[in-house]
Specification:
The complex is a heterodimer of chains A (509) and B (424). Helix content of chain A is 32%, strand content 26%. Chain A folds into two domains: 236 residues, P-loop containing nucleotide triphosphate hydrolases (Rossmann fold, 3-Layer(aba) Sandwich), CATH 3.40.50.300; 166 residues, P-loop containing nucleotide triphosphate hydrolases (Rossmann fold, 3-Layer(aba) Sandwich). In chain A, a hairpin with a 3-residue loop joins strand 7 and strand 8. Chain A is an alpha/beta fold and 509 residues long. The longest helix of chain B has 30 residues. Chain B is globular and about 65 Å long. At the A-B interface, helix 10, helix 11, strand 19, strand 20 and helix 13 of A face helix 11 and helix 12 of B. Bound molecules: adenosine-5'-triphosphate and magnesium ion (MG). The site of adenosine-5'-triphosphate (ATP) has 21 residues of chain A, from helix 1 and helix 14.
């Protein structure tokens, strides 16, 4: 097979880090080429170079055998390269069809936008690639899996032959992931090439033909997926053996810290999203929330953390009623929150690491005395946490927006864990983290539990929930449809409840 | 303790270059226009700059303009930090001015108190005027651009067309035939650099200000070292007293320092305001919360910041800064609210903030530059150039235009560095 893209000696230096260091790579037509590597290894940077968003300092790119300088995304698109970013770039208030034709709108007589034609074309297109979607739905109301579909169709619509998917599965449920894999296979059938980035080695093994491993901006090797194993990949990535399952200490259950009674809440669109939820959480326990995205988990967590108001019901923290309390008083009462959407909620992108790492604690001693910020103290703390949580680069003056996805997440986790919480509410805490970092976060959450703290863990990864939680509750349609001791259940059983095929008569959570 | 080392980055440099290049381009546009009018552009610019520095009187005008522009500029820049566009600086300026004119004539206090009382009152009145817009924004979702424009007009009609010609007019108060409000008390006049020797009270007032500033700065610096609170307090007071004692020699001896006409200590207030807003924004919890809210409301909420309250507070402070600009104009230069009000400083403040990239120090530098251009423009009116003084507005307008089109400038500046391309 002839290569469609060849990279020769691609090097990219950022002020603080050498993100790509003489990268050689060749990608063949009709293959799924995976790239794996730790957070900050340089995967996204390399893809941004291919897509023309960055210019390499040195090295060249050959497309279909011809040396090409890609000056910007428009040129990448002209060369048949499409990219779906780690963080989506859709316009939330526009419809699916409007987003897809954005910038290349079909027109009537070259003037007026022809929305009917756009709608029809989009519908035909999604049919052709087996990705059904409603062209008139507003993007902001679509589940993440669907938004991703819009991104993919958008790229294909612009004539992409080579499709770059940067961590496409990080936001998907197992079911949506299966859908994506079917799409990828269909694309390959039609002669396209896919570059696939993921931290989940099992996925990479399942979908990729060949796998490149990056470490510290360098290629550690390219292997055939048939001739390697997850363990070998992990070793190449990290440079040591990685323990994937962690031992869990026996549970020491303590007092009740969080109690929720018949809670009801609406979502941002004003529809009922949480429909009478009751549960309790005790010290020394990790309670998992399983469920397909969009079944009220997000709204439940927003209410518990004070980001949204409940319609009715009660929330008690340490037996004190805190229904409708502000974020500030909830934080003071010991609620920490790892938010689902790190860019929108968890970080202030133009702030640097130091400023971000005290967000929420910024007004408390020792970070402030009265209204005066104690910058020396903040910086000292930031440096300490950077080391402890292995945030890269080790430079507290780097702005959050120039951190790699995984490192952004580490900043949030470092902050929330260090705030000394009574209850840690974690929404998809390991989303986008590499295996080493995931393992680290898991250990941190278990440590909190062993220290007698309580953890409410919401995740789309059943595996993660089953390996960490002591109890699991399943949310479906805004209700808790089942609650289980983790020891006595399994993925299959939970999946039935998650899809609404089964529910317990009297849920005791 | 080692500080993180500052790194050079082209994108930081660009932030600096954009306003500088815009200013140069604005000056070039001015030259082209002069040339088109058939006059010698270099000569005219020469006249402008020598005019600005040519006489004591014009230097004095430059200083006055700079001080007032700094305050209104800071006002706009400050509001921008919480994400609001304060078009209402003009209205807040007028409100601050009338407050000063009123308190300057109708209450009588010794100099040591009179000025501070007026300052506080003008700040509060200007602040409240702006806070209305902040409050409408957070409770009713009224866009601040709309509400502040309307507040501007209300201020104009309320003050210029009613108060100044009616209840507060000099005619009513003293029976004199002067237009505007009556002349303020001597104790309310800001100390002019010379011309009219200041009264003792004014000098003492200045000493108090110096003492407070020195003590606060010392306190702030000492706060970073690991000494106890009480020690810090005592040390700061000692430092403040020391600095004040040293300055007292200069102040009481200083009879004929810089001779000037209307220039007054307001320029020092302006510099202090630059320092204070900088510290407030970048060294305090309040400033952190204001900036966090301006960048990302959702994340600010997540951090437990009361964004409504912060928004209103920011508008209050922004309005207060404009109010102080009005106070400077009344107590420093005009000494009454004149019949024909030399307004427009509020609107110019928008330009100063934009050119200064909304940073306190940048705003100050822009104000100095345009203080000079405006001060000098008067000289261009004389033969052989005979260029109308609104010419300064043309330069200011085109600079703002180039700043607004900063992406084009960025693109052009980036060209030689395109391959480095770290700029996003
Ligand atoms: N615009 C930028 N400015 C400065 N540094 C950057 C920028 N973009 C990325 N970096 C740095 O380059 C390095 C590589 O980042 P990159 O985003 O390519 O990592 P990644 O392999 O995609 O990681 P992740 O798995 O966490 O997404 C990181 O250390 C990051 O901080
Ligand atoms: Mg990445």
């Amino acid at each position: 097979m002839e290569p469609v893209i060849e990279l020769k000696g691609i090097t990219k230096q950022f002020p603080a880090v050498l993100a790509n260091d003489h990268i050689d790579m060749s990608i063949r037509k009709k293959e799924v080429f995976a790239i794996v590597g730790e957070n900050g290894a340089g995967k996204t940077t390399l893809m941004n170079i291919i897509y023309g968003l960055y210019q390499p300092d040195s090295g060249k790119i050959l497309i279909r055998g011809k040396e090409t300088r890609i000056n910007g995304p428009h040129q990448a698109i002209a060369e048949g390269i499409g990219m779906v970013h780690q963080h989506f770039m859709l316009v939330p208030v526009l419809t699916v069809a409007e987003n897809i034709v954005l910038g290349i709108e079909p027109t009537k007589a070259g003037l007026v936008m022809d929305m009917d034609r756009a709608r029809k074309e989009v519908a035909e297109f999604s049919q052709k690639y087996g990705m059904p979607i409603d062209p008139d739905a507003r993007v902001e109301y679509l589940p993440v899996g669907m938004q991703q579909r819009v991104e993919i169709i958008k790229a294909l619509f612009r004539g992409a032959e080579i499709l770059i998917l940067d961590e496409p599965t990080a936001v998907l449920t197992p079911l949506e992931r299966e859908g994506l894999f079917l799409t990828i296979n269909a694309l390959i059938e039609q002669g396209k090439t896919v570059i696939f980035i993921s931290h989940k080695l099992n996925e990479v093994m399942a979908i990729a033909d060949r796998i490149a491993v990056l470490r510290g901006g360098r290629v550690m090797g390219v292997v055939d997926s048939k001739e390697t194993s997850e363990a070998q990949l992990a070793r190449m990535m990290v440079g040591r053996d990685v323990v994937l399952d962690i031992a869990k200490n026996p549970q020491k259950l303590g007092e009740l810290v969080l109690e929720v009674q018949d809670l009801r809440a609406k979502n941002e669109r004003g529809l009922d999203a949480v429909k009478g939820i009751s549960f309790h959480l005790r010290r020394g326990e990790i309670l998992g929330i399983a469920g397909v995205e969009g079944n009220g988990q997000t709204e439940l967590i927003r209410v518990l953390t004070g980001m949204a108001k409940a319609e009715s019901g009660k929330v008690l923290v340490n037996r004190k009623e805190m229904t409708g309390a502000t974020v500030k008083s909830l934080r003071r009462a010991g609620i920490a929150h790892i938010p689902q959407d790190r860019l929108r909620t968890g970080l202030i992108l133009p702030f640097n690491i130091s400023e971000n790492i005290v967000l929420g604690m910024h007004a408390e001693p020792p970070f402030a005395r009265g209204i005066v910020q104690q910058r020396a103290e903040v910086n000292r703390f930031a440096k300490e946490k950077e080391d402890e949580f292995d945030v890269r680069p080790r430079d507290i003056t780097v702005k959050a927006k120039s951190l790699s996805g995984g490192n952004q997440q580490k900043v949030i986790i470092a902050r929330e864990v260090s705030s000394g919480p009574e209850v840690m509410i974690a929404a998809q805490p390991t989303r986008g983290l590499d295996i080493g970092a995931t393992e680290f976060v898991h250990r941190k959450l278990l440590e909190e539990r062993d220290k007698g703290k309580a953890v409410l863990l919401q995740s789309l990864e059943l595996e993660e929930i089953l390996s960490l939680s002591d109890r699991v509750m399943v949310m479906y349609g805004g209700e808790i449809v089942g609650c289980f001791e983790t020891k006595t259940t399994n993925e299959d059983e939970l999946a039935h409840y998650m899809l609404g095929l089964k529910r317990q008569e009297h849920v005791k959570a | 303790m080692s500080r993180p080392k500052a790194r050079f980055s082209y994108s930081n440099l660009l932030d600096l270059l954009v306003p500088i290049v815009s200013i140069l381009l604005g000056l070039i546009v001015g030259m082209i226009l002069i040339a088109v009018a058939g006059k010698n552009p270099l000569g005219a610019y020469g006249a402008m700059f020598s005019g600005a520095f040519g006489s004591i009187n014009s230097i004095s005008e430059v200083i006055i303009k700079t001080a007032i522009l700094t305050f209104t500029g800071l006002s706009v820049a400050f509001a921008y930090k919480v994400g609001l566009f304060n078009i209402g600086a003009e209205g807040q300026f007028i409100i601050g001015a009338i407050t000063a004119a009123f308190l300057g004539h109708w209450i009588h206090l010794p100099g040591i108190l009179h000025i501070p009382v007026i300052m506080v009152a003008s700040f509060i009145m200007g602040g409240l005027w702006a806070a209305i817009a902040g409050w409408l924004k957070v409770t009713r979702g009224v866009h601040e651009v709309i509400s502040t424009i309307m507040l501007n007009w209300i201020a104009v009609y309320l003050v210029e067309n009613w108060l100044v010609t009616g209840p507060l007019s000099a005619v009513k108060a003293t029976g004199s035939s002067d237009a505007g409000t009556p002349i303020i008390d001597g104790s309310a006049m800001l100390w002019r650099f010379i011309a009219y020797p200041p009264d003792q009270a004014g000098r003492i007032g200045l000493l108090v200000v110096i003492f407070l500033v020195a003590a606060i700065v010392a306190h702030y610096i000492l706060n970073r070292s690991p000494i106890a609170k009480a020690t810090n307090l005592i040390l700061s007071l000692v430092v403040g007293a020391g600095v004040a004692a040293l300055s007292s020699i200069a102040i009481f001896q200083w009879q004929y320092g810089i001779p000037g006409d209307r220039a007054n200590i307001g320029i020092f207030f302006a510099m202090a305001a630059v320092a204070i807003t900088f510290i407030l924004l970048y060294r305090t919890v309040t400033g952190y919360e204001i900036r966090a809210t301006g960048f990302n409301q959702e994340a600010a909420r997540y951090a437990g910041i009361n964004i409504k309250q912060r928004t209103i507070l920011t508008m209050f402070i922004a309005g207060g800064l404009s109010g102080l600009a009005g106070m400077l104009m009344i107590c420093g230069t005009e000494r009454r609210f004149p019949g024909v009000f030399p307004g427009g400083y509020g609107f110019d403040g928008i330009a100063m903030a934009l050119i200064g990239q909304n940073s306190p120090i940048g705003t100050f530098l822009a104000s100095v530059l345009f203080g000079i251009i405006r001060g000098g423009a008067t000289s261009m009116q004389l033969p052989p150039y005979e260029i109308h003084k609104t010419f300064a507005d043309i330069i200011q307008g085109s600079v703002v235009l180039f700043i607004a089109a900063n992406n084009i400038i960025r693109y052009l500046l980036m060209f030689p560095f395109k391959r480095k391309g770290e700029v996003d």
